[in-house]
Amino acid sequence: MRQTFTRFSGVAAPLMIDNVDTDQIIPSREMKTTSRNGLAEGLFAGWRYVSEGNRIPDKEFILNREGYREAKILVSGENFGCGSSREHAVWALEEYGIRAIIAQSFGEIFYNNCTRNGVLPIRLHSSEIAGIVASSSPQLVTIDLPMQKVLVNDREYHFEIGAYAKRLLLEGLDPISMTKKELPVIRTFQEADKLKRPWLYR
Amino acid sequence: MVFKKAQTLFDKLWAAHRIADGGDGADLIAIDRVCLHERTGAVALRSLRDAGHDVQNPKRVFAIMDHIVSFRENRGPDESRSPGGGVFITQTRKLALEAGVNFIDTNDLRQGIVHVIAPELGIAIPGVSLICPDSHTCSLGALGALAWGVGSSESEHAMATGCLRVTKPKQMRVTVNGALGEGVSAKDLALYIIHKFGAKGGQRCAIEYCGSAISELTIEERLTLCNMAVEFSAFTALIAPDEKTISFVLGKPYAPNADEIADTREDWRSLFTDEDAIFDYEIEVNAADVQPIVSWGTSPEQALPIGDAIPIGADQKVLDYMGLSGGQRVEGLEISGAFIGSCTNGRLSDLRSAAAFLQGRKVADGVRAVCVPGSQSVRRQAEEEGLDAIFREAGFEWGAPGCAMCFFAGGQTFAPGERVVSSTNRNFEGRQGPGVRTHLASPATVAASAVKGAISRADKINVGVDE
Ligand code: SF4
User: Fold this and answer.
1) Residues of the signal sequence (chain A) (predicted)?
2) DSSP SS3 for A73
3) Is B266 within a domain?
4) Are residues B282 and B134 in the same domain?
5) How far apart are CA A85 and CA B230, in angstroms?
């Protein structure tokens, strides 16, 4: 079971670029194993390290700056997570400790990959995003999923999320566990189907 | 009399597999069969196991080696064409055997590219819902199967629960009437449609291909056409099963057996679009307008009839990558590579059409030409017919079945900047290797271009063979 989402706070790291694609989030050369784990090190590898081989942190990159290393929230521009459908991008973010991403818009597949892997994607307007990243020092941002609100200092911003995705995140369920709650109806369907198409089940 | 709303073929397949409402506008759709391949199969099986989920019905899952296995003729079972790829092969094998799913190993007699062997083995048959973590799963709609490509997590979901939560897509009908001209293939038709209506033309729809030209296509040609639907941005493609489909399916190992076929045949006969059914979008194509086509850019829509010139004002970035300029003709461009194979054009009829051209001819100097049959069965039949000898004598390499040079997996490929004519389905930047310039075409066009050493039409070639 994943962490559940209620209300949580964390530092928000601004990565104010549009079209951050999944290859930038995790370059394909970093997808070396047949496991979902061990990917955090490769997160933003092309930007995070001075050079690929030595893994020396590039001090300029936001997640290497003082106060942002433990960021739990990423703030970006338009079309975050576009590009290839690789789910590794979300696995790497989640393993690194990113719990929510605030952006103007998301790549469609990436958005769905987030909700089913315990990362909360939040769409806000550019003016609202500007408000969140206005300060040049690390900002503590609170996210209230039940109320669908982002709270910064004394301001709050409402966001939309589908009921199914919300429930997955709130209960810390993965989609498989969620669907398994429907097993009785699935079984009933299969029992009837088995009579019609026995060859499918042998 | 009960009034029954006219349904499309897709509506019928969807309704037959709909288990329940899935919330947020989605449905729970029963997934009859799941195919896995070694590139993501191990990840899926392992994360299922780590999460404590069993494979609900291992008999309905098929794990296959195709994506990164070596295509060297006498490859070993763990030999990968991708550096470090051996672990994906050994792990997939280990986890597939542990999970008890159907498993087809590297050198199994049934092995091949998943979308080539699923029809051969009767894994894909009319009316079955099938998913695979590979975008070209839409090929299998050619048999009237409800088949589409998914992400790795969705394949886990289907294995653990027997279903997927999916939002029903919109629908489009593509009617192709008339007859394809001599020397014009299903690949040309697929490229023509994408070229004419754009790479986004399919609008995320479930597309049904119909019309007199489609009825005339062989099953293999239908598979080629449906294969390219994802390059047209379709959710999937479908062709209503007919007598050709049914005779193709009969006797296949994973299809219903002789005793069951009578009932099943009745079901299959109901799989067509009712006369008054309504589609969200309709497009029409005249088959007679299609000519042999080759792509010039880095999207399959950037394609043209072989004799035509690249549009003036075409995207400069694309032209730079391809080493071309606007107004230039593609015909006659020198090539250094030729590839025949893949799930688009790696079936027996594809190899035959290339071999018919290659017989008695030689690949031009300076061209590396490779032919990789789509499956062991295709390879065996081709060898029985002596096609391998024709390819070899012409100067082609003859490879072991798999995806081979369809996509770059880090290993051997063509050199940066090399121009390659390929019977595959994607010409994206770097698809066949860093800097490699891919031109998509039919197997006959690839064969003709390999002989000429330059892009050319199979029916117009004019090289020195006893002219
Ligand atoms: S042949 Fe190419 S397109 Fe087909 S499944 Fe293999 S990699 Fe994908």
Assistant:
1) none
2) strand
3) no
4) no
5) 14
Q: Which residue has the tokens 């009034």?
A: B3
- Quote the minimal CA–CA distance from A28 to chain B in Å: 10
| Pairing mode of beta strands A149-152, A139-144 | antiparallel
Task: Using the mean position of ligand 1's atoms as its centre, give its distance from the Cα of residue B343 in Å.
Answer: 6
Which stretch of A180-184, B38-42, B278-282 has the lowest confidence by average pLDDT?
B38-42
- Does residue B89 share a domain with residue B233? no
CA nearest to B379, candidates B135, B109, B114: B109
Half-sphere exposure of B341 (CA within 13 A, CB side): 30
Is residue B463's pLDDT more than 60?
A: no
Mutate which of B88, B136, B139, B427 to test ligand 1's pocket (most atoms within 8 Å of Cβ)? B136
> What three-state secondary structure class fits A54?
coil
Task: State whether B154 and B195 are in the same domain.
Answer: no
Please tell me whether residues B89 and B144 are part of one structural domain. yes
- CA of residue B403 to ligand 1 center, whole Å: 5
Dist. CA B338–CA B138, nearest whole Å: 25
**How many Cβ contacts (< 8 angstroms) between chains A and B?**
91
B286-290: average pLDDT: 98
Report strand pairing: A139-144 vs A7-15.
antiparallel
Q: Can you tell me the distance from the alpha carbon of B130 to that of B110, in angstroms, rounded to the nearest whole number? A: 19
**Contact assessment for residue B351 and residue B340, using Cβ atoms and an 8 Å cutoff:** yes
Distances (CA, A) of B24 to A91, B28, B155, B167, B248: 24, 11, 21, 9, 39
Question: B259: number of CA atoms within 13 Å, CB side?
Answer: 3
The arithmetic mean of pLDDT across residues A39-52, rounded, is 89
- Which conformational region is residue B76 in: left (phi greater than 0), alpha (psi within -120 to 50 degrees), or beta? beta
Residue B215: give the domain boundaries: 170-242+273-289
Same domain, B218 and B360: no
* Residue B460 belongs to some domain of the structure: no
Residue whose Cα lies nearest atom 7 of ligand 1: it is B403
Q: What is the pLDDT of residue A1?
A: 59
What pLDDT digit, counting tens, does each position of A110-120 carry? 998 899 899 99
B307 and B418 share a domain? Answer: yes
- Token representation of residue B190: 């697929």
Q: Taking Cα atoms as reference points, which of A94, A112, A125, A80 lies closest to residue A5?
A: A94
Cα B345 to averaged position of ligand 1 atoms, centre (Å): 10
Q: Which residue has the tokens 């896995």?
A: B36
Q: Supply the pTM of this predicted model.
A: 0.90
For A93, the 3-state DSSP assignment is helix
Backbone angles phi, psi at B332, to 5 degrees: 95, -5
